[in-house]
Protein 1
Amino acid sequence: DVLMTQTPVSLPVSLGGQVSISCRSSQSLVHSDGNTYLHWYLQKPGQSPQLLIYRVSNRFSGVPDRFSGSGSGTDFTLKISRVEPEDLGVYYCLQSTHFPLTFGSGTKLEIK
Amino acid sequence: QIQLVQSGPELKKPGESVKISCKASGYTFTDYAMNWVKQAPGNGLKWMGWINTQTGKPTYADDFKQRFVFSLETSASTAYLQINNLNIEDTATYFCTRSIDYWGQGVMVTVSS
């Protein structure tokens, strides 16, 4: 299975600040079709995960441009700028290039 | 709007079975696969597998090949997850997710004697 290593585990932030979350895979996430199937989610307390970014850098419908994704191969980053209270929760990366699909272990974004 | 509405919480005893539902609306059900994801209390997310909504063929991750069954009622745009011979480690919230973009609200299954 592809191991997804997410760092940091916990991320204190000041409202209005900027943060980055890293996700590294144990093997390349470039699919044979040329696409890279790395996605980012936010799970707010008591809610289901919501898709933020799909295929590395594409914002999902309704996601503000404060969220951006980048990376390639095995190394990926989610950047959140101008952090707002509704951004708090646990962020997960997911790879769907290889079977089985695997998630990172999560990064908890909390107020400093 | 696209919605996945799951059934309500379940309290079961070890050895029993449970069948939870995921009703889709707002899109053509057979155009997208349905995935299932497990989240144990206080833990992260684990992908269980998926079902092809056109053919009904399920695919299970290794840890979910023995007691877990994915099924469909296509006429009702509904997917089901059945777990047989429940044990304590099955206590978790189970999510359905349409091809990993839209998610249901989750179903809490508690297994306790």
Note: Residues 35 and 55 of chain A are 7 Å apart (CA to CA).
Protein 2
Amino acid sequence: AQSVAQPEDQVNVAEGNPLTVKCTYSVSGNPYLFWYVQYPNRGLQFLLKYITGDNLVKGSYGFEAEFNKSQTSFHLKKPSALVSDSALYFCAVRDPNSGYSTLTFGKGTMLLVSP
Amino acid sequence: DSGVTQTPKHLITATGQRVTLRCSPRSGDLSVYWYQQSLDQGLQFLIQYYNGEERAKGNILERFSAQQFPDLHSELNLSSLELGDSALYFCASSVGGQGETQYFGPGTRLLVL
């Protein structure tokens, strides 16, 4: 079975500071990993994904994530936070050995960026 | 805008009733997924269809059913509604291959009174 954990319910950061939103996963094989963002009263927007290759993945809006196989982590990062980055962030995992494209999502982390 | 559309945006109904949620996937996408988002359960995968066929099932109640039509749009039917069914229901679509990205619609907010 596949699972993903986001250990922080909320992350607070000041504008201009670097931010990190944590994610760890559990799958039987090599994972497919995703980050999505949800703004209030909106659907989830795709940010980035890791399938294979370079462990550092760059995505939309200046976000990036680093895949660490030994620590089974896929933390989301941004060098300089913006107030407009304040939103709910979801990490998701898929086990490609499952044969189907279902994603398992974490519970989400609320990011609050203060001016 | 993801290209996935969902109707209606909001739905208010009473316990015991039945409702139908509709989803149109992005042009060219063959897979449709349904998710339920609630405060206590988070984002839960319900069911997936691929080109008209059921592909995977998640935490979908027996009172809920879905189908995907030949034009690839999908409907999620919720019956014998309970207060606890109040949630945001999202549809997502993808091309259908390995490792593909799912693109989400804006959701339908269901309130059961």
Note: Chain A has a mean pLDDT of 93.
